[in-house]
Amino acid sequence: MELDDLSRRVEAVSSAYAESHGFERTETWYLLKLQEEVGELTQAYLKRTGQARANGRSPEELEAAFRAELADVLAHTLLLARACGVDMPAELEAKWLWRVDPA
């Protein structure tokens, strides 16, 4: 799946969620929501690595929670980029991939 397509699909889900719950998504909201998700990822990571209480969850459940939080962080990063008019594929190319030979 292309990053632009993924971003559009995540936006559709987020937009529907905001509309159904009656709140406005501003640039500040996107940033704060991303911060919230990074906190949840940190918590999931600590539990997964035995550095926090697992609260009775199995290793498989902890792994699934960690993976889900990674997805949340990516989704909210894409949402923030869209809200701020950032072309993420172009920025990734400029920042990360310019050094890589595609062959």
UniProtKB/TrEMBL annotation:
Gene3D superfamilies recorded: MazG-like (1.10.287.1080)
Q: Which organism is it from?
A: Tenggerimyces flavus
In Swiss-Prot or TrEMBL terms, this protein is called MazG nucleotide pyrophosphohydrolase domain-containing protein
